[in-house]
Amino acid sequence: MSLTVLPGGRLEGKVALITGAARGQGAAAARRFVAEGARVVAADIVDELGEKLAGELGDACVYQHLDVTDEAAWPVATARAAEAFGKLDVVVNNAGVLFFSALEQTKLADYERVIRVNQIGTFLGMRAAVGPLTEAGGGSIVNVSSVEGLAGMPYLTAYTASKFAIRGMTKVAALELGDRGIRVNSVHPGAVDTQMVTDALGGAPVDLAFVGKKVALGRVGSADEIAALVAFLASDDSSYCTGSEFVADGGATATHALKV
């Protein structure tokens, strides 16, 4: 697969670590970052797909196995960026899982699994980024939350809890790290057709067109559209943005809950 590098890429010279990068929004972000001139450590637990992506992206990308819930694995992943590319400027905490269940039927083990990946994984990622980004003279942390980090949705107790937590942690980190030149922002995608959604709904492909019809733009989003927003937050074009929510939801949160 050939990749066209965008002229005057906004991420020229930057090195990024992206979690959950083997597929979906993470893979789209890795491709966009390389197209914008960055070098990328693509991290995931799906090794075959991750290695394949790195092969597609060539010398600008290396793959690193990373279970985001494993505290000891994080220093290894950030060190890989320094070893491969000399530094680390951007960390994108994208890895996540989606789980549907009515509140009264949600098992504690399932709730804890979602919290460990989505919330604790992001916490560990932010914490691991502080040292390398400080050494680099500053940088950007982008935490992928969700519209469920802005409002609730039935059957998503664990997921919503984790995404609200990401939103809150982002603000605290932004306040603590601003004087080091480290910006921290959260991204809040709406309905995006990715493998994560398919997996959460039992593994069979699902037509999400009916969901798209409920939002202002009349369609679901694409992983590439979210990747473009993440690239903006990683770039110096967003140099005065920190501690904020950036929403890409087709207008889902522009309405209220009154039914007509």
TrEMBL record:
Name the enzyme's class: oxidoreductase
Give yes or no: UniProt keyword Protease.
no
User: Does the entry feature the keyword Membrane, yes or no?
Assistant: no
Ranges in coiled-coil conformation? none
InterPro entries, sorted = NAD(P)-bd_dom_sf (IPR036291), Sc_DH/Rdtase_CS (IPR020904), SDR_fam (IPR002347)
Task: Name the Pfam families on file.
Answer: adh_short_C2
- Stated EC number for the protein is 1.1.1.53
Tell me where the signal peptide lies. none
Record's keyword terms, sorted? Oxidoreductase
Q: Which GO terms describe its molecular function?
A: androstan-3-alpha,17-beta-diol dehydrogenase (NAD+) activity
Q: Which PROSITE patterns match?
A: ADH_SHORT
Gene3D superfamilies, A to Z: NAD(P)-binding Rossmann-like Domain (3.40.50.720)
Please state which protein family the record places this protein in. Belongs to the short-chain dehydrogenases/reductases (SDR) family.
Q: Which NCBIfam families match?
A: PRK07231.1
Can you say what this protein is called?
3alpha(Or 20beta)-hydroxysteroid dehydrogenase
Organism field: Amycolatopsis magusensis
Lineage here is: Bacteria, Bacillati, Actinomycetota, Actinomycetes, Pseudonocardiales
